[in-house]
């Protein structure tokens, strides 16, 4: 097992006792199950923890104590109720630690989020969890949130429920964890959107635009419309969007349309002209040109290729359905 180097140690709570846990920052080192890329625990820190990164993403909820949270972008004080998300390419650590207790959720975002398209419509999801956010260029660490009273109680309860499920590993625990985790993500995304609604920061504005695009890419989304959401001129909006997401709004819209078209082309009841309309293209010829630009195939060629692959797999599927002897 390739665990690479040790990045630090923490005291973690396991049901009724405490134990020391070594942290590696890798999937193989920190996640007990290779087929289920997830880990959850309560950690206690009584001394500073060095700057480090992870292969996975990590959600932290401060339960007690305080510290200075260090990131590559800024350092700031954390205390009870603070939530922050560290994605794999970012580093963080803790200084001036005073009896810090954290509920820590370690996860592979592609495993948990890749098929959850409704999350893409939440502004708070893009602000807090989105892997595409380029925070180094936006100069401030914005993937953080402050919770109070009722919000904090609900989020803390969800974290403890996931930890309990993962510790006991009773029948169906993986399904239960997935459901609880998605509930947690939605609650935190809503809280982030609510707390940032009146703010006009770059990341917040671009997260609002991203959510709007994800919800409306199949319609005639205009640059002027997106600029109005951000409260910027069209040129300013496009420049800031490029800085944060390393792509343009138009390119993203076309990418999302092509991704949706690929799904629809697998369903033979839809004609190509119907798919063109459903994905927001003005004419079938423009749809075909854009599709080929992204995938190197026309929509018809892509459909034929998918149907051929499905035909090749059909005999194997039939064999798998035969009764066991």
Tell me what the structure shows.
48% of the residues lie in helices and 22% in strands. By secondary structure, it is α+β, with helices and mostly antiparallel strands. It folds into 2 domains: 8-196, Regulatory protein AraC (Jelly Rolls, Sandwich); 202-310, Homeodomain-like (Arc Repressor Mutant, subunit A), CATH 1.10.10. Strands 1, 2, 3, 4, 5, 6, 7, 8 and 9 form a 9-stranded antiparallel beta sheet that branches. Strand 1 (8-14) and strand 2 (17-23) form a beta hairpin. Helix 5 (149-168) runs antiparallel to helix 6, helix 7 packs antiparallel against helix 8 and helix 8 (223-230) packs across helix 9. The longest helix is centred in the middle third of the chain and has 24 residues, at 173-196. The chain starts with 7 loop residues before the first strand and ends in a 5-residue tail after the last helix.
**Order of secondary-structure elements:** EEHEEEEEEHHHEHHHHHHHHH
Strand-residue fraction? 15-25%
CATH class of the largest domain: Mainly Beta
- In CATH, the homologous superfamily of the largest domain goes by the name Regulatory protein AraC
Q: What does the overall shape look like?
A: globular
Our measurement of the CA-to-CA distance between the termini, rounded to an integer number of angstroms, reads 38 Å
Low-confidence stretches: 134-139, 316-325
Query: How many helix segments?
Result: 13
Total strand count, please? 9
CATH topology of the largest domain: Jelly Rolls
Approximate helicity band: 40-55%
Total domains, how many? 2
Rg (CA only)? 23 Å
CATH architecture descriptor name of the largest domain: Sandwich
Structural class: alpha+beta
Question: What would the average pLDDT be, to the nearest integer?
Answer: 85
- Largest beta-sheet details: 9 strands, antiparallel
